Amino acid sequence: MQPFTFIVAGAGMIGLATAIGLQQAGHRVIVIERGERPEYGSAPELRVSALAHSSRHLLERLGSWQQMPASRLGPYTGMRVWDYDSFGRIEFDASELALADIGAIVENKVLEQVLWDQAVAAGVSIMATTELVQQQVDDQRVQVTLANGQTLTGDYLIAADGARSTVRAQANLPLTFWDYQQQAQVAVLTTELPHQGIARQVFLPTGPLALLPLADAHQVSIVWSADTERAQQLSTLSDSDFIRQLRVASDNCLGLLQLKSARATFPLRMQYCQRWVQQRLLVLGDAAHSIHPLAGQGANLGFADVADLLAIFAHPELQVATLPKQLRQWERQRKAAAVTMIGAMESFKRGFAGSAPWAKLGRGLALQLAHRVTPLKQQLMRAALGA
Fold this sequence. Notes:
There is one protein chain. The protein is of the alpha+beta class. 35% of the residues lie in helices and 30% in strands. It has 2 domains: 4-49 and 109-177 and 269-348, FAD/NAD(P)-binding domain, CATH 3.50.50; 70-106 and 182-267 and 369-385, 2-Layer Sandwich (D-Amino Acid Oxidase, Chain A, domain 2). It has helices at 13-24, 53-62, 108-122, 166-170, 228-236, 239-249, 298-312, 323-351, 357-372, 374-385; strands at residues 4-9, 29-32, 48-52, 73-76, 78-83, 89-93, 103-107, 125-127, 132-137, 142-146, 151-159, 175-191, 198-204, 207-213, 219-227, 257-259, 264-273, 277-278, 281-283, 289-290. The radius of gyration is 21 Å and the shape is globular. The mean pLDDT is 90.
């Protein structure tokens, strides 16, 4: 088999978007994926992402967004954030910045299937149900061996194989790891009251609860993050008891609730890879950074990694003399963005965790101040947009 320009490990949203952009730029790309082609069904999928305008613009440039089924897109025009234990709340509305929406809730598997099919149509080679078991990377080229015994060579290897990246592990890249001591419970629910295209989040003493609007006006996806002890209590509840506690936690903001899916729980951890460029190995997306889901920025960080990397490889001829400098600059810029977001999420988490009266008062005042001071509020909205 002829050498490839890029070998991409991982066919998730980030890996496939990278592969499509590189193939469109005239490079020869192959994607290695341990799983099969994703296929979504008629029922809403559990895992969702809140995509900011910046991510949508990238997907539009790739031609992917235009292929998303409208019936599976949940644009949201407003955000409501409040503290359960105080008077503090802040509300955002897209009209305040003369926009049609703030972002869109997308089911991960739906977007992954769209990207997979687009990648194949664009000429990207995809090898499914296998994985990299050995890799050799130096200053000149990369060579990988797959579980099926096949060997591939290329100019660059891209690790986009998620938070548990085997490529990153095989390269022995240093990793900063932090266990939040929390778990997130996710589910899809039907609601008595329409969600009105508003993303809601309430900060509880044990962790944040997000209710994200789906395409159906009476369906939301929830992400309930809670300290481990509380999360374990929630996971053992019957469906009816879980719904009862969910209604209390959400201030009954959407009326009667009913589970439309099973509930799933996953642990919350922060990871940060300290080296994203090592010879001809590049690391991006969750393989490079994973953060707390309370602001829904994980996927947006990954798509920003992709957008900036594609700008470097925008032409089919690799500028070998300048690429190392450009990649170092890409690494510095993207690492700075990831560290800033990790720090912001930790500040949010700690700031809303205290139950002391002075802490509640402080949170209430901070949210009210942000809501009433227009420049500050608009700055927060632009951050949510990815601007």
